[in-house]
Amino acid sequence: MVYYQLAINSTVQLKGPAPTDSVIVIQSSSLETHPSASSGFDNTHINLKNANGDILLTIAPRFSQNAIVFNSRTVNGNWGPEEREVLEGKFKTDTPSIVIYEHPDRYQVFFDFNPVKYYDKRIQGPTASVEYAINKETEYVYRVMSFEK
Predict the structure, then answer these.
(1) DSSP character string of 75-118
(2) DSSP reduced 3-state for 63
(3) Is the distance from CB of 115 to CB of 97 less than 8 angstroms?
(4) What is the rounded distance in angstroms from the CA atom of residue 87 to the CA atom of residue 63?
(5) How would residue 96 be classed by pLDDT, with cut points 50, 70 and 90?
(6) Residue range 53-79, pLDDT digits in tens
(7) Which residue range(s) make up the domain with 65?
(8) Strands 22-30 and 97-102, how do they pair?
């Protein structure tokens, strides 16, 4: 198991590409569920990227929309169609976790160890980095761990 600290608006390069059947665990030290009053929206997302910079999977909790958005895009391409799940009730604690299990053909995503989504892979390539970004008025902190099964 390899442990990484993932700061706000940063990217961590994994020590090596995550092979198929690997698991990425993202643990947060806190959870802020209200969008910024000044911006009127919350735009938090976690991106799994390959070595080319393609976004293999974005996970974007949008509390103001009561939705979790899943999507992908190539580095110079457009976003694909959004896949959404209802957000309400998905986070069970105020120190939530997101677990992403990488199958050969899809990702299996868990929030607080409860299944949320199977997301079919649209772009191939192993995960080489994890990015965490937010709009500047929101405060979330996630830690990232990556390990093989």
Answers:
(1) TTS-----EEEE-TT---SSS-EEEEEE-SSEEEEEETTEEEEE
(2) helix
(3) no
(4) 7
(5) confident
(6) 999 999 998 888 889 999 999 999 999
(7) 2-148
(8) antiparallel
Residue in this structure with the two tokens 């093989």, named with its chain if needed: 148
DSSP annotation string for 4-57: EEE-TTEEEEEEEEEPTTEEEEEEEEE---S--TTTS----EEEEE-TT--EEE
51 Rama class: left (phi>0) / alpha (psi -120 to 50) / beta: alpha
pLDDT of 34 strictly over 80: no
Q: Which residue in the block uniquely carries the two structure tokens 């092979």?
A: 19
In CATH, what number is assigned to the domain containing residue 96?
Answer: 2.60.120.200
- Nearest residue to 67 via CA among 89, 52, 50, 96: 89
Q: Is residue 99's pLDDT more than 60?
A: yes
Domain count, the chain: 1
User: Quick one: pLDDT at residue 147?
Assistant: 40
What DSSP character marks residue 64? G
- Which of the two residues, 135 and 95, has the higher pLDDT score? 95
User: Is the Cα torsion angle 50, 145, 62, 113 positive or negative in sign?
Assistant: positive
Quickly tell me which residue has 């992908």 as its tokens: 72
